[in-house]
## 1
Amino acid sequence: MDFAFLSDTMGQLLAVTPVTLELWISCIAIGGVLACFVTWARVSGVPGLTQLAAAYIFVFRGSPLLIQTFLLYYGVSQFAEVRQSFVWPVLRDPFNSVVISLALCTGGYTAEIFRGGLQAVPGREIEAGRAIGMSGFTLFRRIIAPIALRQALPAYSTEVVLMMKATALASLVTVWEVTGVAQRIISHTYRTFEVFICAAIIYLVLNFIVIRLLLHVERRISPHLQGRPNAIHPGAPPEHAAGPIELPEVPR
Amino acid sequence: MIDLSLLGFGAGSWGKVLLLATLMTLAVTLVALAIGAIIGSLVAWAKLSKNLGWRFVGDAYTTVFRGVPELLIIYLIYFGGSRGVTWIGSLFGAQGFIGLPAFMAGAIGVGVISASYQAEVFRGSFLAVSSGEIEAARAIGMPRLLRFRRIVVPQILRFSLPGLGNVWQLSLKDSALVSVTGLAELMRQSQIAAGSTHLYFTFYIAGGVLYLVLTSLSDRIFGVAEKRVARSFRGSVGRG
Amino acid sequence: MTAIPTLSVKDIHKAYAGVEVLRGISLDAQEGDVISILGASGSGKSTFLRCINLLEIPDAGQVTVAGETIAMRPKRGGGQEPASSKQVDRIRTELGMVFQNFNLWSHMTVLQNVVEGPLHVLRRPRAECVAEAEALLEKVGIADKRNFYPAHLSGGQQQRAAIARALAMKPKVMLFDEPTSALDPELVGEVLRVLRALADEGRTMLVVTHEMGFARTVSNRVVFVHQGLVEADGTPEQVFGELKSERFKQFVSGLHA
């Protein structure tokens, strides 16, 4: 147990952990917003728009993230038009390029998750809303969206964790994050197992925190799925509270 | 702008190379899935065990291999595997560095990752097998092993089909990461072609299209298979 | 004239989580007996039946089939367990069980279900198994459904297939665990008809049931179980007619409520 080596490795990896986090938060945020638009387009029923959204989802879910990343980073630089345009300074930077491709990718998957959530809204609850005169945006805002979001949350939690893992691909386009630095250390020292364990610990801890946070959110927004409140002691924890919500096993 | 003849089959063209690379991708994924099925069954068995220790081992496996980036795991298998093989070789008197063949490293890497997902699929399927049907087998005097073989396993395979379809798609895409070992699969070949011609856009699009063909064909095939299986068992899942 | 009983169950005790469900039930069945077992929900009658073929293990008591007693040995932590799983499997082949929820194997056709036991457990030649299976399916009236999967059959058809499956093993005793309780009312009749035919053939049958008509007219013996003990045991005339037991009277009137 070479603690000196381990702690030195850990130090190096922790130093770049913020990069991993930045990548992750950025792509989740952008991808989430993107997914809202794509889902809306997908379910809109507008001919052309629906197909476009479906095509987008098909492409980004059907191909590996790596090739999407390379395509954006190396591929678009092939065109002089792009190099001379205003987006070039943004796209040139590997970090930005990776965030965009990660966001585009998670946008596709998340759009499908949101669509699944929408489809899971019980028709009878929408009917009840209509019956009291709700329609259009109010119906969506007060009834459909909240229920859809709750239905989508478990699958979305899985997606969020998957994106954390996806940030590792940034190392292949010269962004120094945890996996990239780990690989550099391995190739210098050949101490594969020790470095792997250090890096694995970092990712597992990050995942753990994220999953706990999301479980907490799930509990907060779904009080109706927990046990019955304790009538005698209103503040006490409910009996038979639902256990930790199982994340679905296989992502896609 | 894009010279499509480059994707053809003539001299100096990459069409044939890319198609062969596609076959390599399929091969790696198939072997990976087979490895994953074996490991996954063991992990599922551990997770279903009455023994707390085994359950811990099973849960630890799925936590690690689903929580750690796939790229890191492939590095582990490739670099770590090479060290392991070199060490074993040294026990037999071989000298110097023996690399783990890229195909093996890739297949094992994707395989151990898919195993964690397959374990969940198998575990869920096992729990879904109707206890009533198992009881009927006991009541007829079927010994345990025969019960497992004739009643439990066929049902597990049937229930696992949708989940395994997902795992296949997942592994197909993960196989692109095997390119870091240098194996001439689709991702790597696209990269080589792109770098060699400096037509990055062209060849990454070509590679992407080929992957899309693979995933949508797989989708079709699994869809047909699921329909055929469901036809016989419509309405009976969960009965008893 | 007491020959060796085909089935002899002595003093079965069974407790779940500290609650004693069976508190010492004994039953002997001679060849050809058709015994209806009645009782309220929770009286333990299904548990009792399942203790006979050891789907549940009784905490105490023994089961003897055609003179052969299932060997038990004491278990760590109290109770007992079978001494030989091979013996249990073998004796199970002599006891046919029909379940409330049919429990047909959903990945096999009706014919395959019926053939499975004789072919893979008893290891008889395939041609023989198939021929007998077809005859049995004919007998219970679903020969035309032989290549159907259970999911495509009605409840009554599935239960008749399940009966054929149990008969295929040529058991000495047939155990029926509420065979009609999961059926729609209009399908109950076809299954009761099969049961009656089996009774007329002289089969030894134990039937846990709520069907009073069957109990009165087809069985030659009625056993009333109440809270884990046998409250009444006699011919239908004795148990229904003289209605000695107060509890039985309550039970019967409760059913008509």
## 2
Amino acid sequence: MNPSLAEKIIDLGLGAGADFVDIFEEETREASVLFKDNKVESAKAGTDYGIGIRLVYGASVVYGFTSDESEAALIQLTQALAYQGQVGNISALPLSLTQAPVIQSVKIDPRTSGQGAKLDWLRRANTAARSYSPLIGQVMVSAVDSVSQIHILNSEGLNLSDIRTRCRFSVQVTAQDQGQLFVAREAPGALQGHEFFESLNIEQLSTDAAQRALLMLHAGYIEGKKMPVVMGNGFGGVIFHEACGHPLETEAIRRKASPFVGKLGEAIAHEKVTALDDGTLFNVWGSLGVDDEGTPTQKTVLIERGKLLNYLSDRVGAKELGLPQTGSARRESYKYAPVSRMRNTYIAAGTDALTDMLASVDQGLYAKKLGGGSVNPATGEFNFAVEEGYAIRSGKIAHPVRGATLIGKGHEILPLISMVGPDLELAAGMCGASSGMVPTTVGQPSLKVDSILVGGRA
Amino acid sequence: MKLEDALSFALDTAKQQGAQAADVWVGENTSEGLEVFEQKVKNVELSTSRGLGIRVFHGERPGYAFTEKLSIESIKQTVSDALSHTQLTAPLPLELPAKLNLEPINLNLEHPVLLNIDLDTMKNHGFEMEAQARQAHQSVENVPYTALGKSKSQALFGNHQGVFAQKKANDFYAGLGVVAHAEGIKKMGYYSNQITNLAQFSPSLYAHRAVARAVEMLGPKPVPSGKYPIILSNRVSPAFFSMYSSAFFAEAAQKGQSRLAGKTGQILASTLLTLSCEPHLPNHPGSRLFDGEGVATQALKVIHEGRLETLLYNLESASREKRSSTGHASRGYSGQVGTSFSNLVVPLDSKNLTQLKSSHNRCLYITSLEGSSGCSAVSGELSIGAQGFLIENGEMVHPVDRITLSGNFFELIQKIEGIGDAYSDQMSSVRVPDILISSIDVAS
């Protein structure tokens, strides 16, 4: 968008009494190839394009978007957004273009290497997974890339552009035997170009998924009850993300819809728990040079040795609650107003060995890999599926178990994390909330929760 | 460029660039809505989005692409992208429809009077809903979510054979979430619905329903783990069937992603269960006269008295079995052709809720399901958090929370021993009454 049109829009918004106006222009090129049933099932590419305009009145947000880039359409939209404003006379500041801080290096731009470059990676994954066992009934492999060009302008003189290139590889394997089916998946991603696909050990990823699908296909069911749970590293961090991360976003705090309202400075977790949300990790899936308001991202300590230090804030949340901005404003696309969201969220490494955690449990569950889950931020109630689980018997990993679900309240579980391992690992995921689906990383080392309700068979 | 012009231009361009067949889906959505919190407007949103998606065939190979820029240059690039993808995909021999005869049915999806609702009216209704909720019960602690909005959508379909169709719809919705608090326990209650008749919209009614759903769950007590009969209330039974709906798609069965492969004609559920797709129900959001490939929709019994009668087909999955589509292609401009129910319907039976509750000395009445990540339409696995009530001798004893239900969908539908006589008042494309299941594993 040319700066003179942006100034017109900003002047119009400020003239209608807004305290702050910003413009978010996005053009995202995404491309995917899906390999399924031993052949290329689909190849797809597309362009998302649109402009979002936001007027902020105190703690109230008026937001609109359109994919029509004409001056008439944008002026009309701004006038409609200003419906509830009062006449003001603040002038927009001069605008000069800057670039977002560099948070990634792209060696192979997906826009130039093309869709055909993905075929070899897809075929290799398919072959590796199917070779693992004749009981592998279906393999779905996809390689997805996106390049987002972002332009943010605001009434404080920001005129900033950013390019975000992401790639994700997914292998989903279905094992089947005597009418029974089980699905396992691996899906790493990075803030990188196609060099990310080249860097993957595709055969290992695929056989890992195949091995898990086969193992769990023949697993028995766990008996449901309260028990100690040792959680595996990596994607196990989804439980902290959902049950604790979301309630620490100012979007929940400002609605008083979080068990952590008013708890800054208080002990909310076991002293072994330190948790962070870091948007600055180079080339990592959930990282950003600037957030979707143009604020540089940062490494935010949420919990330090059990004590709550910070919430994750966007502009409006920070202003309303009198807190600093943490560069956490995010949105799926121009179709959403930004709100505070997580980036790369993880529990920091500790010193307890996995063998010691297991040895401390007589009867329990080793949840080596979690599936997805959900949480009600207002009450803290969560629910997570265990994709790969094992019964713990007399301090040792025993037989695999399927069908286990973890259920509880995030703020009640935090004090029960009594052991934390050194094996921190991150895992890519997609997080859904009021500003849409955004790429986030979850992570944790292996850890032990002293007691949690595990759903299973009676 | 206007939507109709964009559609025609894309088809013409596809032909010029060498596509042997093509179809195009163009969509436009506009919406206005707001959120209220503590008697202030928290967020207002106005939106317009539109886009065009094309599927082309070259040498029987399909290729897809889409764009939200409806300019000549961008559409040309999109068609070119789609054609380039035909170099990668496997052949899929199918013939796009040469004609489309739409039934003369008014689905009643357009409500012009709702388009006139302005933001001030929404704001006033929102303020009233929130205020009523806060006053409705002493245990109400917070009303964090109150939202109202209207939306309007238009979709156009066309293919290289000259088939053209369009659909329009608009709606208005309102809803709120309430937190009730007593003795250290917090519970949330939601109520939201689509409104087609503004005269029947009562902010007070919405507020009291949300409050009732939060307050009724206060004072929960545990129940022992074990096997229980359960009644899935008509508030959650639609979600139960939705989670497993893809098991009924032919494509899933063809690709080893459904346990229903090869089961057509077999009894696989209780004979009480009939499950249909009803595309022509007036006022229902899933209703449609044509599907995403320009095939006329039709009512279809998928399960009839326990017997699997058919799976759902689009042109692509039908082509693999050399049969006809059942008119169940799903499509948006940015996606490829998939499969979906129009409206998934389990017909009403004769038992009312009181009779269902009295069917066993002891059962659980489930009013909330939490998270679906432990549920797989592929394996049928079900492991899910739930809340509800312990029922003894037909009477409610106390609320129950922090339980999980565990089983398998394909086994649970064999255990259906009662179907209710009423749907939830929630406007939805999935209509399922209360369902009584004889036994399920419950962990507490």
